[in-house]
Every structure is written in structure tokens, then in C-alpha cells.
């Protein structure tokens, strides 16, 4: 149905308003017959945007979305160095990786608490917490796990750029995914912390009961059981047991803080 009046055109209940210096009458509009096929609700409309919101994004033969080609980075006059000067610290990403039950979240919480007490601004991106919101649409299939890490890496990068010390606590079992996150940041701003705890220790802890489920075959693709964990080859910090005793959270946190202090991240 097409209705004309008060200088507006209504098509399929969506109002497209236009202005005109002359009065529009029904006799001045030429209506062209439209085939039913062309009146599909999925109408494509070209809209100009300064944010590159899908302009020139097209579907390929498989239906997947190709990236827009006409987007341009907009530089702001307030830069990372300005934000770091304001916070009196340097933004970076502390990426804590290791098996489930290795103590990643324990270290992350102890570290953010210790830095907070020193007047430093931090934020923790916990692997489980992120899956409650940002990554709630992802499964634990290989491709989704890679996307999970990619998204966390991108968010961590934004935090670091804002001048915040971002602590990412994620299993992130594959080197290529961790290395991809490292490559997003300036040299030195990605600090990989490897929780090098024996599988038997992690499995004995089993705080979520996941190892028990994996051993019983109730869940599959579980890191350390029927899916591999690729240990870092050149990480900045390694946290290990001292004999048969795991170091207290405060001791582990202090080891990371000493590194940050030595590298100049605790001052602008």
C-alpha cells in the first residue's frame, strides 16, 4: 500500500520523509506496477553512514559476511600516553594461561587486589565470566573457542589502550590463539603468565567437577583430558609449585608485580 500526503511517502509501514518546495499531489506521482516477488519484506536500502555500518558488506555464495572495505580509523586528540599520564601507570595485558584448576582465577583476583591497594587501576577478564555476556553465543567447539579468545584479546587490547592494566584469566590452550592476541599489542605490552601446574594437581583440585565429568565421558573436548594444552614457549612469567607445595596467591601476585615494576608499568 502506498499513501501520499503532507510531503511523506509510506511504504510497508516504514515512513520515509522527504521535503519539497512544491505541493505534491496524487496526480504528480507515477506509480509503476511492482511484481509480488519484488515486494519482499527483505528490502535492501542503501544508507550513508560515517561509521561504516555495513556499507559495502556483501554476502558471498555461502552466505557468510565479508568485511567492509570503506572503513577508516578515526584518530582522537587524546591518546594512550595522555590516559597513562592521568592514571600514573602504563596500560598492558597480563594474560594468565594454564589448565583448568591451575589457579588462574586465584592469581588474577590476588593480583588485582594487590595492585588496587597500590592505587593502580586494573580490570579482570575471567574466561567464565566473559561467557556470561560478550561470548554467551559461543560453544566449546574448536572454531568457537578460537573466536572466544579472539574477542577477549580485542577487549583486552582496548583496556590496555585506555591505560588500564588488564588481567585476562583464560585457559587459552593453543599457542596460535595466544600469539594472535600478543600480536595485537605493542612490543612488551602483552605479558604471558603460565600457570605451570601438573595435571594431577589440577585434577585433584577439580573445583568445578569438570575433570570428573570428562573422565566419565560426559563432556568431550576437555583440555588436558581429550584435548591438548600447548604450553607457552617464550612466556614472560612462569608460576610453578615449590616442591609439592603451591605458592600462596599473594606470593604469586607479588612475582607478577615485581615484573611490572621492573618494566615500568606501575608509573607513567
SSE layout:
Layout: E1 2-5, E2 8-11, E3 14-17, H1 80-87, E4 92-97, H2 104-117, E5 122-126, H3 127-130, H4 142-161, E6 165-169, H5 175-183, E7 190-196, H6 199-205, H7 210-215, E8 237-240, H8 249-262
Parallel strand pairs: 4-6, 4-7, 5-6, 7-8
Antiparallel strand pairs: 1-2, 2-3
Helix pairs in contact: 2-8, 4-5
Question: What can you see in these coordinates?
Answer:
The structure is a single chain. The chain has 268 residues and is of the alpha/beta class. It contains eight helices and eight strands. The strands form two sheets. The chain has a five-stranded parallel sheet with strand order 5-6-4-7-8, with helices on both faces.
Give short descriptive properties of this protein.
single chain; 268 residues; alpha/beta; Rossmann fold; five-stranded parallel beta sheet; three-stranded antiparallel beta sheet; 8 helices; 8 strands; kinase; P-loop_NTPase; ATP-binding; transferase; EC 2.7.1.25
Short description:
By secondary structure, the chain is an alpha/beta fold. It folds into two domains: 2-39, no CATH class; 80-262, Rossmann fold. It has helices at 80-87, 104-117, 127-130, 142-161, 175-183, 199-205, 210-215, 249-262; strands at residues 2-5, 8-11, 14-17, 92-97, 122-126, 165-169, 190-196, 237-240.
